[in-house]
Amino acid sequence: MKTRLMSVVVVIAVVLLTAVASFGHGHKDPKKVGILLVAFGSSEASAQVSFDNLDAKVKKAYPGIPVRWAYTSSIIRHKLAKQGKQLDSPEVALARMMDEKFTHVAVQSLHTIGGEEYHDLRKTVGGFKVMGAFQKIILGYPLMSTQEDMAKVVDAVMGIIPEKRNKNEAVVLMGHGTPHPSNAFYAALMFQLQLKDPNIFVGTVEGYPGIDEVRDLVLKKKIKKAWLVPLMSVAGDHAKNDMAGDEDDSWKSILTAAGIQCTPILKGTAEYDSFADIWVSHLQGPLSHF
Ligand code: CO
Q1: Residues 68, 158: one domain?
Q2: Are residues 9 and 90 in the same domain?
Q3: What is the pTM of this model?
Q4: Cα of 113 to ligand 1 centre, how many Å?
Q5: Residue 247 CB burial class (10 angstroms; 0-12, 13-18, ≥19)
Q6: Which residues pair with 227 in a beta bridge?
Q7: What is the whole-number distance in angstroms between the Cα of residue 205 and the centre of ligand 1?
Q8: Same domain, 66 and 163
Q9: If you measure from the C-alpha of residue 149 to the centroid of ligand 1, how many angstroms do you get, rounded to a whole number?
Q10: What is the mean pLDDT of residues 249-276?
């Protein structure tokens, strides 16, 4: 956290100096619109499918607008750097865009809910706004924000359930979960999904409800089979290990030990057009203000 803070301070200092230097010229830079896509990031090669899908969709929806990427997770960025892949933090990516004389920037969160990562990103965007780095910089909502989004996500979930699944079998979605107050979105999603199909459950790896609560709910209904589905943009480490892994504490092992046969589906939500389109549509708001 300390190194992150330091890097932010350094970037902001550099950006401020650049800004002060350019203010002296007394002319307005020509309009240059850019998009910055910000994901948590993943070091798993399988995650790239999700990011590529989002990248292609954004470029198709908003042709001619340069698209940049940043990862909020410093752990992931450091892991990737060791493999020779340089990924920017949002702070560095925005400083670069400032240096490249972008005047209007739409920053799009590729997170699932407005949790810690999203709110850190808000602070970063706010910082660049306060220092007047761009004429306009606007942050787009994550996947689930408004009630309209929730309805779209419910439809998207209903649309990715395998046809082979029998209605009396469970569908268990694995969200990430967070200590942030927005963790409540997961239970809210489960409520809305169950209005359509009472055998769909939503749990989280690091928040509430956890797998123990979900297991008890499934057992209460005497369900013997469950389809495990990641509710994360990528099928990365959590999906592969915490959800579908063979370790005793994976969701597959915990449910299997309770007599529930599991079929994991290793696909991130951003691999499906229905989910990707929700994120892409969130750019419309910011871009319409430019
Ligand atoms: Co995690």
Answers
A1: no
A2: yes
A3: 0.90
A4: 13
A5: exposed
A6: 171, 263
A7: 8
A8: no
A9: 23
A10: 98
Which helix (H) or strand (E) segment holds residue 230: the answer is: strand 225-230
Nearest to 95 by CA among 28, 39, 15: 15
Question: Any catalytic annotation for residue 176?
Answer: yes
Domain that holds residue 97: 2-143+273-287
Q: What is the pLDDT of residues 173-224, one digit of tens each?
A: 999 999 999 999 999 999 999 999 999 999 999 999 999 999 999 999 999 9
Of the pLDDT bands very low, low, confident and very high (cuts 50, 70, 90), residue 19 is: low
Look at residues 118, 229, 115, 243 and name the one whose alpha carbon lies nearest to residue 183: 115
Q: Give me ligand 1 centre to Cα 111, in Å.
A: 12
Confidence band, pLDDT 50/70/90 cuts, at residue 15: low
Residue 114 CA, ligand 1 centroid: distance in Å = 15
Percentage of the chain beyond pLDDT 90 is 88
Quote the pLDDT of residue 1. 45
CATH code for the domain in which residue 62 is found: 3.40.50.1400
Q: Sorting pLDDT into bands at 50, 70 and 90, what band is 29?
A: confident
Answer yes or no: do 137 and 6 share one domain.
yes
* pLDDT of the residue at 27: 61
- Residue range 104-120, pLDDT digits in tens: 999 999 999 999 999 99
Compute, in angstroms, the gap from residue 238 CA to the centroid of ligand 1.
7
Of the residues 104, 176, 238, 282, only one is catalytic, namely 176
- pLDDT recorded at residue 253: 98
Of 178, 69, 164, the residue nearest 117 (C-alpha) = 178
Which residues have CB under 8 Å from 229's CB, separation 6+?
157, 160, 161, 171, 172, 173, 174, 265, 267
